[in-house]
Known about the structure:
By secondary structure, the protein is an alpha/beta fold. It is 41% helix and 12% strand.
Amino acid sequence: xxxxxxxxxxxxMKLYSRSFGFRQPYQVLxxxxxxxxxxxxxxxxxxxxxxxxxxxxxQMITQCSMVELYNLGPSHxxxxxxxxxxxxxxxxxxxxxxxxxCIKSVVGDTNKHRYxxxxxxxxxxxxxxxxxxxxxxxxxxxxxxxxxxxxTTLRAKAxxxxxxxxxxxxxxxxxxxxxxxxxxxxxxxxxxxxxxxxNPLSVKKKKPKAPQGSxxxxxxxxxxxxxxx
Length: 229
C-alpha cells in the first residue's frame, strides 16, 4: 500500500474511533459477496483487512451469508472453508434471508455494535451509507479499499462536536460552584491587622462625673486624741 493511502486510512479510522467509539480489534462483518470475490482473486482477507484498517481486527460472518456460500455448490468449497475460519455472528434468522437484508438487520439503524462491513454488493453499500458511522470496505479489481466517510457520517460527527461545545447553563453553574477560591479571578481581600477591640461585656461602665460648682464632698469625721490627765 502506498504511504499516502495508508495515512488516509489511518486518519479515517481515527475519526471513527474518536467520534463514534470504535476500538481495536475492529469487528468486520464479511458477507458472501466479499468472500467469493476475494477467493476468485486470491486475496488474503485477514491480512489485507489488517493493512487497510491500520490495526487489529477480527472477521465475522452471519449464518445467512454462509447459506449463500453453501448454495454456490461444490465448486466453491474453498470459499466455504475460508469463511468457516471466521467468527460466526448470530443474526437470529431461523430461516435464511438474502445476504443484503441480513447485513442491514445486524447493523441496524445506528450501528451500535460498531461493525466495519466488507461487501461487494453495490445496493448494500448504498444502503449502509445512509447509516451514520459505518466504515465500508470493498475490493476494487484486486485492491482492498476503505471508502471515505459518507455524508450521513460527517453530519453526525458535526452534530456531536456542536453538542460538545455548547455547554448547558446548569453545567456551567455546577462548574462555577466547584471552582476553588484560589482559582478565582479576584484575589481574596486581606484583613487589616490592628489592636483587637475589647470585649464589650468585660468593660466597666464609667461613673457619671459630678456637676461643676457642687460643694458636696464626703468628709471623714476627725478622730483627735484626748489626753487623760
